[in-house]
């Protein structure tokens, strides 16, 4: 890569990192180019697609943060405390970093490095949920699909209340966790578990909201 192209790529990475953290991964590419002080065409010439830019700018940091939260959760001796830590910390990341909120939602399936990080995160989540089930601490009818939907709902709430009531998500997470304790499972759930296909389709729809 020529020196001028390298400088432009660095400017674009820096601008994208700022805007992704401020507004999420859906920020218009023209705004990234404008903040970097380069043309829209230069962005496309250097990165080609939004997904390639996301992989270059977000994937490594997001993977590190998600892996850290999962490792902390699994290191708890108490399985319920580990599960609660995982839910609370992921919801906090969604509320404080719009880019991570989009990562957790799996909104960009063509960003290969990002999806690999999401895959590791989901596998860790399955271990955390299974551990809490085996300990008899988490209500037995709670599934990984339910966890995905809980994170999707938190992302929408956190984004909607970011300015007016930035801590509103914390109350909802506290209510959620109290309701997920095994001893709270007094009423059968009114619907069956969604299939993986239904979960994917629902998340795509939420990404358009």
List keywords for this structure.
single chain; 209 residues; mainly alpha; Arc Repressor Mutant, subunit A; Tetracycline Repressor, domain 2; 2 domains; 73% helix; elongated; HTH-type_TetR-like_transc_reg; transcription regulation; Tet_transcr_reg_TetR-rel_C_sf
Characterise the protein shown here.
The mean pLDDT is 90. The N and C termini lie far apart (39 Å). It is elongated, with a radius of gyration of 19 Å. It folds into two domains: 55 residues, Arc Repressor Mutant, subunit A, CATH 1.10.10; 148 residues, Tetracycline Repressor, domain 2, CATH 1.10.357. It is built from eleven helices and no strands. With 209 residues, it is mainly alpha-helical. InterPro entries: Homeodomain-like_sf (IPR009057), HTH-type_TetR-like_transc_reg (IPR050109), HTH_TetR (IPR001647), Tet_transcr_reg_TetR-rel_C_sf (IPR036271), TetR_SbtR-like_C (IPR049445). Pfam families: TetR_C_43, TetR_N. Keywords: DNA-binding, Transcription, Transcription regulation.
Task: Write the topology of this structure.
Layout: H1 3-23, H2 29-36, H3 40-47, H4 50-57, H5 59-75, H6 79-96, H7 98-104, H8 112-134, H9 144-160, H10 168-180, H11 196-207
Helix pairs in contact: 1-2, 1-3, 1-4, 5-6, 5-8, 6-7, 6-8, 6-9, 6-10, 7-9, 9-10, 9-11
């Amino acid at each position: 890569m020529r020196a001028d192209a390298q400088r432009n790529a660095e400017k674009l990475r820096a601008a994208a990192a700022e805007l992704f953290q401020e507004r999420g991964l859906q920020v218009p590419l023209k705004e990234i180019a404008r903040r970097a002080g380069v043309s829209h065409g230069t962005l496309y010439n250097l990165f080609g697609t939004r997904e390639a830019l996301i992989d270059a700018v977000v994937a490594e940091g997001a993977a590190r943060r998600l892996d850290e939260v999962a490792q902390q959760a699994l290191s708890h001796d108490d399985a319920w405390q580990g599960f609660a830590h995982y839910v609370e910390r992921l919801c906090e990341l969604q509320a404080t970093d719009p880019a991570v909120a989009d990562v957790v939602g799996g909104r960009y399936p063509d960003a290969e490095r990002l999806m690999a990080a999401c895959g590791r995160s989901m596998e860790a989540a399955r271990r955390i949920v299974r551990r809490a089930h085996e300990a008899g601490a988490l209500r037995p009818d709670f599934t990984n699909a339910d966890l995905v939907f809980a994170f999707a709902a938190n992302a929408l709430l956190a984004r909607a209340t970011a300015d007016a009531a930035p801590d509103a998500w914390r109350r909802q997470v506290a209510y959620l966790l109290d309701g997920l304790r095994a001893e709270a499972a007094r009423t059968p759930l009114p619907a069956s578990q969604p299939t993986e296909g239904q979960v994917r389709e629902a998340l795509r729809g939420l990404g358009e909201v």
